[in-house]
Amino acid sequence: MKRIKLEIAYDGTAYCGWQIQPGQPTVEAEMNKALSELLREEIIVTGASRTDSGVHALGNVAIFDTESAIPAEKICPAVNQRLPEDIRVQTSKEVPANFHPRRQASRKTYEYRILNKKVALPTQRLYANYIYYDLDISLMQEAADYLIGEHDFKSFCSVKTQATDTVRTIYQLNVTKNGDIITISVTGSGFLYNMVRIIAGTLLEVGRGAYPPDKLEGILKGCDRSLAGPTALAHGLTLIKIDYVSEEK
Amino acid sequence: MKRIKLEIAYDGTAYCGWQIQPGQPTVEAEMNKALSELLREEIIVTGASRTDSGVHALGNVAIFDTESAIPAEKICPAVNQRLPEDIRVQTSKEVPANFHPRRQASRKTYEYRILNKKVALPTQRLYANYIYYDLDISLMQEAADYLIGEHDFKSFCSVKTQATDTVRTIYQLNVTKNGDIITISVTGSGFLYNMVRIIAGTLLEVGRGAYPPDKLEGILKGCDRSLAGPTALAHGLTLIKIDYVSEEK
Is the dihedral of CA B161, B86, A238, A138 positive or negative? Predict the structure, then answer.
């Protein structure tokens, strides 16, 4: 028996998120189906990030255990032949049997993309949140700086969460602009339910002038979801990568 | 009566190209339908570039004549309310009654995008041609340089063309790389049927080492379609913009 770690990219447009839901298309269900067919045994993957409906990934991580003799590195190209074209495994390799994608220390990086112009662009409609009003990215960055470090992010967590410990660390949070695309890039030790989308929704309020940047300090301290901005639309969000501190045998 | 010029962006994925074909979804048919509904008269647009099935646009151009009293600039936001979300008019303005988008002197810019990595990326699958083998962009640029200037591009034109004069001018032809994306950017006085896709297909042959760069000289001189490389896939191509030398009243 060996444990295999996969890095998986997908276009979330057609899926009701990562996690299996009966009768709904999910990335997890597609992975289990393709791997089970390939390896001729029942495979059940465990994912690192249960991305929401419509959220994209360049590098979500999942593991599974197999008795197969196929070399770990060959699983990536082989399973891609059986996956729909909106899911592609990027890498596959063997990891220690005790490696767990959600319990191991990691740094996750997400990007939230905003198309900021007067008229929408069809070719960006699935991958960026279209905002027609002007956004001031220097104000957005000023606000973002309050969130860097270790904080209780309860205000930035959906009330539907099951988490009891809402303290997380944000290592990096940058707001940059390239042409008409504004990108909010955030790296952290982990993220609460809807946390990146609530951060994005709050920074959008700052960017349009509705909140002063220093309001973020009070939102954090208040530990109350109703203080922060709205949850930004899912399709602007992409899980870029998950770096584990240690995993190799 | 006034003549209105539109700049139109679209995602070509769902369309059988620009030009009306009975029973098929086309961008031209959607434009005529939305404008006719908005202006309450029968509108028939005339497009600048009859892009192929699957080709995208940021700035195709079309004109139409109308008796409507709606100010020209207001047509853009109003018609967008009636268009599907994969088509968006970017600008609308009045032009002289003798302005014609195909007969007026112009410079057209296209981009052909290639995703060059070992495994495909789902979020790029509709907007870049995925090539897994290594491509040498310095060889591609060396080959591209032979095409700059005024030449008979008969070798780079589909045999299905109706054009008799196959001389065109390429002002600029650059091959650049950003991360995993290689972009072939070309600006010319006009392009023959499939010309940009045949240029891209030929540069791909150079990039993978199948053709030496100086083979382009012989391909041009031969004036024979069979000498050039294959026609690259449509979905990598985007019509970026069309600049007219003069149009304003």
Answer: positive
Query: For A87, which residue in chain B has the nearest alpha carbon?
Result: B122
Complex-level ipTM = 0.91
Q: Which residues contact A89 (CB under 8 A, 6 or more apart)?
A: A6, A7, A8, A9, A75, A76, A79, A80, A83, B119
Residue A122 to chain B, least CA–CA distance (Å): 5
DSSP class per residue in B171-237: EEEEEEEETTEEEEEEEES---TTHHHHHHHHHHHHHTTSS-TTHHHHHHHHT-GGGS-PPPPGGGE
Instruction: Count the neighbouring beta carbons within 10 Å of the beta carbon of residue B19.
Output: 17
The 10s digit of each residue's pLDDT in B22-62 is 999 999 999 999 999 999 999 999 999 999 999 999 999 99
Taking the whole predicted model, whether its pTM rises above 0.90 is answered as: yes
Residues 6+ apart with CB under 8 A from A100: A46, A63
Instruction: Say if the Cβ atoms of B123 and A9 lie within 8 Å.
Output: yes
CA distance A47 to A45: 6
**CB-nearest partner of A85 from B11, B89, B125:** B125
3-class secondary structure, A211? coil
Contact B123 A123 (CB under 8 A): no
